[in-house]
Each structure stands twice: as structure tokens, then as C-alpha cells.
Specification:
Layout: H1 5-11, H2 17-33, E1 38-40, E2 43-46, H3 51-67, E3 75-78, H4 88-91, H5 95-110, E4 135-136, H6 139-149, H7 158-167, E5 169-171, E6 185-189, H8 196-210, E7 215-218, H9 225-238, E8 245-246, H10 251-254, E9 264-267, H11 271-277, E10 286-289, H12 296-306, E11 315-319, H13 321-329, H14 332-338, E12 342-345, E13 361-364, H15 367-375, E14 380-383, H16 386-395
Parallel strand pairs: 2-3, 2-4, 6-7, 6-9, 7-8, 10-11, 10-13, 11-12, 13-14
Antiparallel strand pairs: 1-5
Helix pairs in contact: 2-7, 3-5, 6-9, 8-9, 8-11, 9-15, 12-14
């Protein structure tokens, strides 16, 4: 790699051990991926927050940076944790787990990182501009930033994102480069896509096929913002997609800076995805909405569906503290909680210790959530749009 004199001095330890270790991480990754230089970033989003993922080794890794006086140089926000920091006891999170989790978040905050605990940082102030180079690490956020906003980021790991926040730069390779953002395979979609659940199902179909290539979708109806979130999150979970283009809709496709690839495959049915994601029976034990974290608009929609109704099984809507505060101000949270559901902050079911709660079948409108709940948490799932999930919460049965 070609380092500037300042970068070389940092790498050689002249700026102290904290900056040296951060630079060593970045240079090592740059060499692995063939980067020729580092590029400055405007913001960072850091994964590796939930104690479920980190365990004690990860917790001790973060503590090292705190003990050595590290501070971030760029706006940096945190991914979801494994608990709701305020309501963990009320919601039934294990005490020992919760203690470790709160200490991890406190340590990150001591590094100067905003303890936002959300997978949708673009909803609460960490909003890059088109063309900005950033260093984000949560898979759905990376996909949304690259695709919907047109910012530029690879899917960073937790340590590399932290190093980027401390140094203010990241290796310039992958999706930071024009040529790497070109689509590798096209999907001509004739299957019906009418809601966020269909978008997520399409993400499962494409993600399991495309691998790490950049997909280009044609034939899609006008997409809502939430549909982009679900499509990208599903492809990141079922494959390793961090960027996709939608003909005539996403920024680079609209500007025609990317072109449809020669290789195009038909998508005639979403049935294979629905069959995969609907592994559970008709009886529902728990309903989870907000993966990725619910926006204020989504909170409004959910509140209107719950108005005048009562849930008979637990229903959690996971979101950020900031979005929950807005929902409270507008009265949405009162309607949701009045129906017996819960607005849950800081976490989501994927990174929480849900396997300790005793649920057998979870209903959700998140294809990503289903994918991980089945494979990682050992929980059966029912999958459909938000209307179906609300019906399940209010009846305890999956609607026919």
C-alpha cells in the first residue's frame, strides 16, 4: 500500500499505540484486498455490539481501546445490542447477560461513539450523501447506504470499523471504486412484488443465487423506502450482497453510470422463498416487527393497524431510542403500548438471546429475521407482510 507520510508515521507508532494498532488493522486488510491506498471517510457504523456475538473475548477487546485512551475522529454510531437498555428487566432479558451488555455499550461510549444501538443509522442522523466514502459494518445498513443513498462502503467488520473511526480512513478497495460497483448479473422480475414481504422474499431468491456479485433488477414496480431495506437485508443474509441496482430507481441506475449486465436471469415466482421462510405451524408464540429497525413511518402504520385492538401474544416493535421518542411525541407509541404490544429499543430479535425466552414459532415481516432465527437461534418462523403479523399478534394464529 502507498501510505502518506502521516499515515506511515502512524503505522510506525509515532502517534502512540492506539493509532498504531488501528493503522495496522487497516493496512493488513488493505493488503489482503489489494487496496493501493486509504481513503478518508465521513462516518462509521460499528457492529460487534451484542454480548451474544462478542462474548468475553470481544468485551475485553473493546476494553483494551478504552484502557489505552482511544477516541474516534469521525461520527460513529453503534449497531443494535442484545437488550433494551431501559426495559431489559421488564422484558425478561437475563440479568447477567444484561450487565455485560450495558458495560459494553458504556465502553463504546467512552471511545466517543454515539450509543445509538440501531441497524438503521440513516434514520437517526448518521446520513451520508451520494458519493461519500464511509465505513459501515451492519449488513442491511451497508446495502441501504450503497444502494439507496449511493454512498460508498464495503461491509466492514467490527474491528476494522472501529479502526476506521479512530484513524478517519479505510482501505480504498471494493465498493469504494467505480469499477467494483458495476452489476455482475441481472434479474428480470416477472413475479408479483406488492409489499415489503415480497421484496424480502425476492431478496432471498436473489441472495441465494447471486453470491457476492452485484445484482441489477429490472421489471420492479416503484419501490417504497422500506422495501429497499427488506430487499437489501434479505440478500445480505442469504448471500453476501452489499450493493444492488434497480433499473430506473436507484441513484446510479437512474444516472446510467451503471448498465444492465449481459447475463440476465428470470425471477418468475417467489414461492421458494415463502416456503423456506414459513417453517413453523399455525400457532404463533411471538411476533417481531422492526428488522431492520422500524422507521417513524412504519411505527405510524403499525399504530393505525393496532388502534382499538388487543394483542394476545407478545408483539415487539424494535427501533432506535430516537425513533421511539418521536413515536411517543406523535402518540404512536401510546396506541401500540395500549394494545398490549411493546416498543423495544436498542436491540432486535436476531442479536438478542431469544433462544432463552422459550418461544417455538416467531412471526415476522423480516426475511432476514426469519433466515437468522431459523439458522442461528433454532426458532421456527412464519413470514408475511405487516398486516399478517398484526393479525397473528391479535389472534395467536397465522392467518390463512
Amino acid at each position: 500500500m502507498e501510505l502518506t507520510p502521516d499515515e506511515q508515521a502512524t503505522y510506525d507508532g509515532e502517534r502512540g499505540p492506539v493509532h498504531q494498532k488501528a493503522m495496522e488493522i487497516l493496512v493488513a486488510l488493505g493488503k489482503i484486498y489489494g487496496a493501493r491506498s486509504l481513503v478518508p471517510v465521513t462516518s462509521v457504523q460499528i457492529a460487534g455490539v451484542s454480548y451474544k456475538n462478542l462474548g468475553m473475548p470481544g468485551k475485553e477487546f473493546i476494553r483494551w481501546w478504552v484502557d489505552h485512551g482511544a477516541r474516534v475522529r469521525r461520527l460513529a454510531t453503534l449497531n443494535p445490542a442484545g437488550i433494551d437498555r431501559k426495559r431489559w428487566k421488564e422484558l425478561g432479558f437475563p440479568e447477567e447477560f444484561s450487565t455485560h451488555q450495558r458495560e459494553i455499550i458504556d465502553d463504546y461510549a467512552m471511545l466517543g461513539i454515539e450509543p445509538t444501538c440501531t441497524c438503521a443509522p440513516y434514520e437517526i442522523g448518521n446520513l451520508p450523501k451520494f458519493g461519500d466514502h464511509i465505513a459501515w459494518s451492519e449488513s442491511s445498513a451497508v446495502s441501504f447506504a450503497n444502494t439507496y443513498i449511493g454512498a460508498r462502503t464495503n461491509r466492514e467488520g467490527g474491528p476494522s470499523a472501529l479502526a476506521a473511526a479512530i484513524v478517519g480512513k479505510t482501505p480504498c478497495h471494493g465498493y469504494h471504486l467505480d469499477e467494483q460497483r458495476a452489476p455482475g448479473v441481472g434479474y428480470d422480475v416477472t413475479a408479483t412484488v406488492r409489499n415489503e414481504a415480497d421484496a424480502g422474499a425476492l431478496g432471498i431468491v436473489a441472495g441465494r443465487d447471486v453470491g457476492s456479485r452485484v445484482p441489477f433488477f429490472s421489471g420492479l414496480p416503484p419501490f417504497e423506502t422500506g422495501w429497499y431495506k427488506q430487499l437489501g437485508a434479505a440478500m445480505a443474509a442469504s448471500g453476501s450482497v452489499a450493493l444492488y441496482h434497480v433499473d430506473g430507481q436507484t441513484p446510479e441506475a437512474r444516472a446510467k453510470t451503471v448498465r444492465p449486465p449481459e447475463e440476465t436471469r428470470p425471477v418468475e415466482s417467489l414461492d421458494p422463498a415463502y416456503e423456506l421462510l414459513n417453517s413453523g405451524g399455525e400457532r404463533i408464540d411471538f411476533v417481531s416487527l422492526g428488522c431492520p429497525h422500524a422507521s417513524l413511518e412504519e411505527m405510524h402504520r403499525i399504530a393505525e393497524m393496532l388502534r382499538g385492538r388487543k394483542v394476545v401474544v407478545p408483539l415487539w416493535i424494535t427501533t432506535s431510542v430516537a425513533t421511539a421518542a418521536q413515536a411517543d411525541e406523535y402518540g404512536y407509541a401510546a396506541v401500540i403500548e395500549g394494545a398490549g404490544a411493546r416498543v423495544v429499543c436498542d436491540t432486535c430479535m436476531v442479536v438478542s438471546p431469544i433462544e432463552t425466552f422459550g418461544y417455538e414459532t416467531v412471526a415476522t415481516n423480516s426475511a432476514k429475521g426469519c433466515y437468522y432465527l431459523q439458522s442461528w437461534c433454532g426458532v421456527e418462523t412464519r413470514y408475511g407482510d405487516v398486516h399478517s403479523c398484526i393479525e397473528a399478534a391479535c389472534t395467536g394464529r397465522w392467518p390463512q
